[in-house]
Amino acid sequence: MSCDEDPYVFSSDTLPSDRRFLPPLANGLLGWRVYSNTMHMGGVYNGEGGRCHRADVPCPLTVKVETDEAAQHTYSLDTHTGIFTHTLSSASVTVTQSLYSHRYYPNLMVMEILLVRQMTSEEPIPVRLVSSFTPQSKDIVFESGPDYKGGSHIQGKVTTAEFPGGSCPTVHLIWTHIPQTLTLLPEQSQARWGFILVVANSLDTAEANFDEGLNLMATGNLRPSHEKAWKELWLESQVEVAGSERLCKALIGCMFYLLSAFPSIHDTSSSFGGVSPGGLSNGGDGQDYWGHVFWDQDIWMYPGIALFYPKLARAVLEYRVGTIDGAKDNAQKQGFKGLKFPWESAVSGREVCPEDIYGQQEIHINGDVTLAFQHYLYLTEDLSMFTEGRGREVIYGVADYWVSRASWNPEDQKYHLLGVMPPDEYYYNVNNSVYTNTVAKFSLQFAVELADRLQHPAPKDWQEVAKHLKIPFDQEAQYHPEFDGYIKGHPVKQADTVMLGYPLGLQMSPEIRRNDLEAYEPVTDPNGPAMTWGMFAIGWLELGEAAKAQHLLEKCFKNIQGPFQVWSESSDGSGAVNFLTGMGGFLQAVLFGYTGFRVQKECLAFSPVLPKDISELCVRGVNYLGSQMDWLLRKDEVCIILREQANSAGNTQSCDLQVILKASATKIPLTPGKPVTFPPEPGCVCKLAVTSSCWPL
């Protein structure tokens, strides 16, 4: 399945006039926007508390190529390989500059220059390399170190720790010398040069990676090892549609930029620093949310990655485990027990939001974090994440927080959560946000479930608070008000109550689901953040209203800026850039909307619906209980192929699977390599020996 041109290649003969929309090149550790003077390294922040932001690191690869002759320019991002190229074609020479963040060796960034003579001539052909690099940063005091094997070396520490007594990370840069001119000699028809940059937290790591880079160049394996790593990633996941070239490209762009924000599937360092709304390329002082990690990671970006990559999903959970001490500190400062994950997180898990009210009141973050853990368990059954991996400390700590945060109201005999800010940040200090209370209820129930699986005695309070926590509902209007006292028709910033159905999975009748959608869609800010419309689209798809869903998804295209499929937070181009949150919401609308995928306790449910203009949806690499499946959805049929050899999560043993169709109760075993075809109707994939129903009651 492909569009007319290769949909994985984004090309233009000009660069965007707004340089914020140049493509980011990232690999989960290093992030750089092409031609920018600064780059960032995961986990390297400067500033205390609310002043904490990604530390700017100068980038020696900030080089533009120029020729004396008039030349035709082409700029291209190949998402197959994660390589950005600038090609200059003149009468005498073709110059190709290639840039990439190495996908296998995350401390490594690369620039390659290829000169190819275009006419018979015995003249030398010079090409200028114009650098705007200066070895300085407002966040790090750099000093020159001794050259290492011909490479320049600077090192420095950030100036201010994240919290008093915290450590200040060290950054080392070693890079090969970049001359001002490269020359194609008279006897040469072509010539190639390679330049490497290493960024690391210690001198030993920097030198070891520089040695590796030099060795890769010497053996001709620098680019091939990078391309192989991207090829491996794409073999694990593919989301393509037939019928809309624009949608096809948008989905590929979303997957590419999201994958770029995650570590290598071979990474064993456990040093992943989380995913911020603008990714690693952005997030300096005062920009793109300072590079902090929000609920965006766990609710918006994580689901589309977790469906394919258990290892990358686990990296997100391990990031949250690494912030347990900070979350404990946050809870204590608020006067509560357990763990309070920060609304804005950096490295320690202590609250780094510049404005206190969000950290104090936007407490739904706790349930958002635990929902990611819950989905991981249901997708993988990997209990090691919860035992040796300390995931149970997260789940139990959040449950303890909810119990201490909830207040008993004798009038309605319910527990209340008072003085909160819902996801809709137009309102604050409200009581019983319906989203917050629902996600709290579900995280308490999951704590009880996990305790039972791990044979840990669960405190009775967990079940008691979950059972009696108030979920606001208007009986007369048959809809969910956003919070106590919400007046129907008042403006809403973003998706909030509509997220009860998905991703939270609160059971309700189709009538109530429709009422919620109709109540909030017309009053949601049209200039609100990009991820919102994906959630409305999923709601309408649940109700079989594909045309309405498609109309809402169309709005998202306004957030895609320029030729390189870079998203802005708002449709007018303002807000965070390379807005991964919006990409995640858009991707979920297709992955969980068109397919109807729902991650449930004992099955992966599905209910396919394709809009009129989409003839085919191909989703390859869905990873469930250690097995990988390729799905092909058409108007009149669904085809599933269980892959012959699954790459499991390391701690997940694959098991025999079957498809069960809901209406007929038909059971179809899945056999590796053998296609299974059935009508496009609701059903589920589950273990062959499943004993209980996974259908909602």
TrEMBL record:
Name listed for the protein in its UniProt record: Protein-glucosylgalactosylhydroxylysine glucosidase
Reactions catalysed: (5R)-5-O-[alpha-D-glucosyl-(1->2)-beta-D-galactosyl]-5-hydroxy-L-lysyl-[collagen] + H2O = (5R)-5-O-(beta-D-galactosyl)-5-hydroxy-L-lysyl-[collagen] + D-glucose
Molecular function as annotated in GO: protein-glucosylgalactosylhydroxylysine glucosidase activity
E.C. designation(s): 3.2.1.107
Highest taxon listed in the record's lineage: Eukaryota
Record domain Glycoside hydrolase family 65 central catalytic: where: 266-488
Keywords linked to the UniProt accession: Glycosidase, Hydrolase
GO cellular component labels: cytosol
Record-linked InterPro entries: 6-hairpin_glycosidase_sf, 6hp_glycosidase-like_sf, Glyco_hydro_65_M
Family from the record: Belongs to the glycosyl hydrolase 65 family.
GO biological process terms held by the UniProt record: carbohydrate metabolic process
